[in-house]
UniProtKB/TrEMBL annotation:
InterPro entries the record matches: CASP_dom (IPR006702)
Organism, as annotated: Cajanus cajan (Pigeon pea)
Subcellular location: Cell membrane
Regions that span the bilayer: 12-34, 54-80, 101-118, 138-158
Family stated for the protein in its record: Belongs to the Casparian strip membrane proteins (CASP) family.
Subunit-level organization: Homodimer and heterodimers.
A Gene Ontology term for the protein's cellular component: plasma membrane
Lineage start: Eukaryota, Viridiplantae, Streptophyta, Embryophyta, Tracheophyta
Main location as per UniProt: membrane
Presence of the UniProt keyword Nucleus in the record: no
Protein's name according to its UniProt entry: CASP-like protein
PANTHER family: CASP-LIKE PROTEIN 4A4 (PTHR33573), CASP-LIKE PROTEIN 4D2 (PTHR33573:SF40)
Topology term for the membrane: Multi-pass membrane protein
Keyword terms of this UniProt record: Cell membrane, Membrane, Transmembrane, Transmembrane helix
């Protein structure tokens, strides 16, 4: 397999991973953003933004989503044109470190949401509010997996490009 074909395969794989990350983060954001419940007895309303762990989870989703959207545009450009937007060594470093940092950020948001759900299930009866938050945290976890996998692919290009 020649280097052009290998580079094209990696570019397409990264694009696919970015599209999947985009989809999972978008669905996770929708689930957590529309998540609210009203207490039948008191009439009190609880929304995701009222819970600090869920607020942090929303922040990680939004930041991860914004970064992924930028990288998605870069990946589409690379696949379509065969050239990179950021052609210098700094572009490869940006991809590599950006993917690493964002993937760790996404896993921290997922962990915050999932761990809170585990603790709350011990104390409170099961309800749809916590189920929706759990779904969102799980989708965020899958988004992390796709971003972490993309970081593996971006690490393949790093030694070849920065050492030349």
């Amino acid at each position: 397999m020649d280097s052009t074909n290998s580079s094209s395969t990696i570019s397409i794989s990264v694009l696919l991973l970015r599209v999947l990350t985009f989809i999972f983060l978008l669905i996770a954001l929708i689930f957590i953003a529309i998540n609210r419940v009203t207490d039948d007895y008191t009439g009190d309303k609880l929304e995701s933004k009222d819970v600090y762990a869920y607020r942090y989870m929303i922040s990680t989703i939004v930041i991860g989503f914004a970064y992924n959207l930028l990288q998605l545009a870069f990946s589409i450009f690379t696949v379509v044109s065969g050239k990179r937007v950021l052609r210098s060594d700094g572009g490869y470093l940006f991809d590599f470190f950006g993917d690493k940092i964002i993937s760790y950020f996404l896993i921290s948001g997922s962990t915050a949401g999932l761990s809170l759900n585990v603790e709350l299930r011990r104390e409170l009866p099961s309800n749809t509010f916590f189920h929706k938050a759990n779904v969102s945290a799980s989708l965020l976890l899958v988004g992390f997996l796709f971003t972490a996998t993309a970081s593996i692919f971006t690490s393949f290009a790093l030694p070849k490009k920065t050492n030349n």
